[in-house]
Design goal:
One of its GO terms (molecular function) is transmembrane transporter activity. The chain is mainly alpha-helical. 71% of the residues lie in helices and 1% in strands.
């Protein structure tokens, strides 16, 4: 079969036609801000660092560093693919061009959207809980009904902001991200300055000190979650100035900023609290679910501890906003290329945003939150845990898509061989290995809070999401004939011919 990139290598990168979005409204700083905000750094490190420390002790910084490696390798793949095909559909378009419409629709479309919807339920719930606590309404914060109502209200608020345009969303994110980074850096500086804080050790970064492969793999999988989300900034490539270049740069910059922020916070927390199993120690299981709330008061004092609480709250809300922006643009691209109903391709005439798609994403996340809450609080928690499986699936597929798409050009230069071949290949294989390891661990009924006939509920939710996607794919093939018939060439042009 001829290499589909041969002609493109002669004619230059493929550029998707405009979809009606407001081009040039976002610069490099705004793109980096959107990428960092979508990860929710304050929330992510708060709910992950304790569990990583429980697994590997004071080697948590080493786990953070090793967990970053496949993320960085994948970021190079995203950057190279975005330079070639700057389309707001990102993984959907790239995996379709590389592997065909079946893989593109399922892993580049469905899996990404499901992971985002589940993440939005978690983020809205966390944001609502922290907001009620900040307002002094602790009784309501302990009420599932009150938290759910507040979470739905937050979803409505951020949907309204996303509906009005990316420029407004980016402006709001400057403030929210600034508060998060200031709070984390302030916490770290205060922790290091406290009397009795231990001197940081480079041994905490030793990648060869893990006690076996099991703890190492589990810790790295946990760390994979806290870096996830930066790719949402690339969905704004058609609204970014010089989006083919700037969006890719922003992806790499945002991941490096995340690494620095997380390592600084982890070193500070371990220096101050240690890894003991009692009191404020990071090895205390009672502290694992939210380590920053535990340490904020002894490190910062009761007044400034409220600022840290606020930072985690706005971290969840800002990530929620970016999820809306990215997910609605993903469905816009799928519809524009004839893989979803045409309603998702409608652009608001004044705001120049995917109006229907934005409202659909917000409403779907709210319905999913209510449904999972009604089923069981444990069920919602297991749904959140299964996100790691979905992340590894589509990140790994996208990285391998980079290698396959550019396979005919890898001999052109050393740069192409490394950045389009070797590094993405390593990243993709690592992600798929993480997927396999994660699926194996999740199958255990003791993993998470639920199980069914001896099979872990987390595994059933993760694998079930992908299996449901396969069924949805079968239905989509009967509706969107041109997309599935024409294969890779379909996403090289806009279609919008089927509803």
């Amino acid at each position: 079969m001829p290499n589909p990139t041969d002609a493109e290598a002669r004619t230059g990168p493929a550029t998707a036609p405009g979809k009606g979005l407001r081009g040039g409204s976002v610069g490099l700083l705004a793109a980096v801000t959107l990428g960092l905000s979508s990860v929710a750094p304050a929330y992510s490190i708060a709910v992950t660092l304790g569990f990583v420390t429980l697994t590997v002790g004071d080697l948590a910084p080493a786990a953070l560093l090793l967990g970053f490696v496949p993320i960085l390798l994948t970021a190079f793949a995203f950057r190279e693919l975005n330079r070639e095909m700057p389309d707001c559909g990102t993984t959907f378009v790239w995996t379709t061009r590389a592997f065909g419409p079946l893989t593109g629709w399922l892993t580049g479309g469905w899996v990404v959207q499901v992971a985002t919807f589940i993440a939005m339920t978690a983020l809205s719930q966390v944001g609502a809980t922290y907001l009620l606590q900040l307002l002094g309404l602790r009784a309501l914060a302990d009420s599932g009904l009150a938290v759910t109502i507040t979470a739905v209200a937050l979803l409505a608020a951020v949907t309204s902001i996303a509906y009005r345009g990316l420029h407004l969303a980016a402006s709001v994110q400057y403030v929210l991200l600034g508060l998060q980074l200031t709070a984390l850096l302030g916490f770290g500086a205060a922790a290091f300055a406290r009397h009795g804080a231990a001197t940081p050790s480079l041994a905490w970064l030793n990648p060869f000190a893990f006690d076996g492969f099991g703890p190492f793999a589990e810790a790295v999988m946990l760390c994979l979650f806290i870096y996830w989300g930066w790719d949402a900034l690339i969905t704004a490539n058609e609204e970014t100035r010089d989006g083919g270049r700037v969006a890719g740069q922003a992806a790499v910059i945002s991941t490096l900023v995340l690494l620095g922020t997380y390592l600084f916070t982890a070193f500070a927390a371990i220096s101050f609290a240690g890894t003991g199993t009692g009191g404020t120690g990071l090895g205390n299981p009672d502290n694992a679910a939210d380590i920053l709330s535990t340490l904020a008061s002894p490190v910062l004092g009761p007044v400034l501890a409220k600022v840290m609480q606020l930072a985690v709250c706005v971290s969840a809300v800002s990530a929620l906003l970016t999820c809306l922006v990215g997910s609605s643009r993903g469905t816009l691209s799928m519809a524009a290329h004839g893989a979803l109903p045409t309603a998702f391709a409608r652009i608001h005439p004044r705001h120049r945003t995917p109006g229907f798609g934005t409202l659909f994403v917000g409403a779907t996340a709210a319905c999913l939150l209510v449904l999972l809450t009604l089923v069981s609080a444990d069920f919602l928690g297991d749904a959140i845990l299964c996100i790691g499986l979905l992340i590894a699936c589509y990140y790994g597929t996208t990285a391998l898509a980079c290698v396959w798409y550019f396979r005919g050009r890898l001999r052109n230069s050393l740069r192409d061989l490394l950045l389009r071949g070797v590094l993405p290949l390593l990243g993709g294989l690592t992600m798929l290995a993480a997927f396999a390891r994660s699926a194996h661990d999740m199958y255990d009924p003791a993993y998470g809070s639920t199980s069914f006939h001896g099979i872990g509920g987390v595994f059933l939710l993760g694998a079930g999401s992908i299996a449901t996607g396969a069924l949805a794919l079968a239905v989509a093939r009967t509706r969107y004939h041109r997309f599935f018939r024409d294969g890779r060439t379909t996403v090289a042009e806009l279609t919008i011919t089927e509803d």
